[in-house]
Structure formats: structure tokens, C-alpha cells
Write a structure and sequence with these properties.
The protein is an alpha+beta fold and 198 residues long. 61% of the residues lie in helices and 13% in strands. It has a 4-stranded mixed β-sheet, sandwiched between helices. It is elongated.
């Protein structure tokens, strides 16, 4: 919980920085927020690509001066000034290991700022293009926001869908229907009858 709080504080500061520099135009702010999100995601992917590199930056044993030297040599000319300075602040404060959590918090804040929502659809099979479009339209109408939808396969669902966005879950899977049916059967035993449950 403490790590999520720390990440949230850094993410809020990063969003404020981007919004201050982007000015007052909504489209400019959206573009700037998305650009930094992409850049931060790319940085994290690059750092985590090799576990030795990621372990180096996460390690509390390696001093911040040694980490900064590597950041200067490798990243200074490939990152935007703001993200480079931000990684320097994280380094000095011993928080480079928080980068993935900061990205997650930043993404949530940026989504809220630009009026978009992320939805994960779990299905037994990959959604067809037409099913995906219909579901996207329905979810967009329900949340009244732009939607970024991902489809993840879960064969154990047997059929149907589970749609998850934050705390909202809509479960129409056959797996959940069978579980509910089983519970109803167990709850409504016929009086006087003995059942053997496996």
C-alpha cells in the first residue's frame, strides 16, 4: 500500500508538470500526456528487457552516483528533458524501482484527465472484429468515455465474457453461470432427501 501511495505522489507530480507545460488547450494536454506515457513505458521496457540492467537500477546496494553515471551515458540524449530530469529525481531519492508503479498510476491519472477508460474483456476465444466493435460501442455508451479495450483469452470461461474496468465487473461467462447454478442447487435441497456432494 505504501508503494502505491509513493507511486501515486510521483505520478501526480509528473501529470502536473506535463499539464503546466502543455498549456490550456485540451488537445495539446492530451497529446502531451500520451507522449510522456509512451516515453515512460518505453523507458521501463528498455530497462526491464535485461534483468541485469533492471537489477542494477533497482538495487539499494548500488549508489545513486553510479546509477546517475549510467543514466547520463545511456539515457540523457534519448529521453525528453522532463523525463530525464524525473528519472534523476527518482534516482537521488532511491525510487527508480518504483518506475512500473509510477507508470500505472500515471496512466490512470492521464486516463481520467483526457476522459478515457481502460477495459479488459476476458473470453474463451478471441473476439471477432464485429463482436469487438459491438462490445466497444456498448461499453463506450455505458461509461460515456473513450475506451481502450484489451481482449485476454481465458479458455476456462467456456463461453461468454467477463468485462472488467477498475471496480466494475460484468460476468456473463458460462463458468460463472454454472457456479451460480451449483450454488442454487445446493441451497435448495429437497426436504428429507440426502445428497452426496463431491
Amino acid at each position: 500500500m505504501a508503494d502505491a501511495k509513493i507511486a501515486s505522489v510521483y505520478a501526480e507530480a509528473l501529470v502536473e508538470l506535463v499539464l503546466d507545460q502543455a498549456g490550456t488547450g485540451a488537445e495539446g494536454q492530451k497529446t502531451a500526456l500520451e507522449a510522456l506515457e509512451t516515453e515512460l513505458g518505453g523507458l521501463i521496457a528498455a530497462l526491464q528487457e535485461d534483468s541485469t540492467v533492471w537489477d542494477f537500477f533497482r538495487s539499494p546496494v548500488v549508489g545513486s552516483a553510479a546509477k546517475q553515471k549510467v543514466l547520463d551515458q545511456v539515457l540523457k540524449n534519448s529521453l525528453s528533458k522532463d523525463l530525464y530530469n524525473f528519472t534523476g529525481v527518482l534516482n537521488v531519492r532511491g525510487r527508480l524501482n518504483e518506475l512500473p508503479a509510477i507508470l500505472a498510476a500515471y496512466t490512470k491519472l492521464a486516463d481520467d484527465q483526457v476522459g478515457r477508460r481502460r477495459v479488459t474483456v476476458y473470453s474463451a476465444e478471441k473476439l471477432s472484429d464485429s463482436d469487438r466493435e459491438q462490445l466497444l460501442a456498448a461499453v463506450k455508451s455505458y461509461f460515456d468515455r473513450n475506451i481502450i479495450m484489451e481482449n485476454e483469452l481465458k479458455p476456462e470461461l467456456i463461453g461468454g465474457l467477463v468485462v472488467r474496468s477498475g471496480d466494475h465487473v460484468l460476468d456473463t461467462s458460462i463458468q460463472s453461470r454454472l457456479k451460480r447454478f451449483k450454488q442454487i442447487m445446493l441451497d435448495q435441497k429437497i426436504a428429507g432427501e440426502t445428497y452426496y456432494e463431491n
